[in-house]
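1st attempt posting a full record on here, be nice pls
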Amino acid sequence: MRDFDGTLAPGNIQENSFIPAIGMKKATFWQNNKTRAEKHEADEVLSYMTYMLERAAAQDVPVRKRDFAEHGKTVKLFRGASDWFDHINAYAKERQVKLQHFIISSGIKEMIEATKIGRKFTKVFASSFAYDANGAAKWPALAINYTTKTQYLFRINKGSLRVHDHGLINDFVPHAERPVPFTNIVFIGDGETDIPCMRLVRDQGGHSIAVYQPGSRSKKARAEKLIHDKRADFIAPADYSEGRRLDEILRAVIDKVAANHAVHMMERG
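the predicted structure (as tokens):
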């Protein structure tokens, strides 16, 4: 499972075409939002989603579900990301490992699902809007910030994938009966907003990978700090091409999961 912004594609997904469409530069949009959130003691994710709607209304920019999808189609992914899912799934199948992909992101769900890889995920947990009878976005329905991201790790761990359903997520389920053990989870993220998820997965016996934009020294240094601070197990450039470091790390983890399962089956006799 992974974050989206900065992990599978450069920058924030809103920056590709939506923010230019509402007549703003990305730096101005995010700085204004930070100021708004501070003024109102507001969550920055809820604030930016509301700000999107306000600015769109002021600029007469449509915000229907299909409009967000059109913005999502403009997103350029990191190298190799479009093809990576098919060949890593094939490798997992060879090793008899059931591989699933999830997104946990503060970005806009409707945009993420419309990207070239939107159909590759079992579930996209991301910030989303509620829509009126005409399909226009009216208010934020779900806002996922850096701390609430961890909730969705437990949902995946327990198999509770319906966001509105809080029954199973709060029930006690023995670790051996959970459909996706934390030891089999790999979380891929790029920055500070991913630290709680990285740390949780790592502490529970899974693996965390910090990726950075290829060629960026500052982002590589940030990723290296996550290793130093014991938040991540590995770092790699966000290059998903077959045979590159990130691909090799994930293949090695798949091998480990397969080997652990084989040992477990032998122990059971």
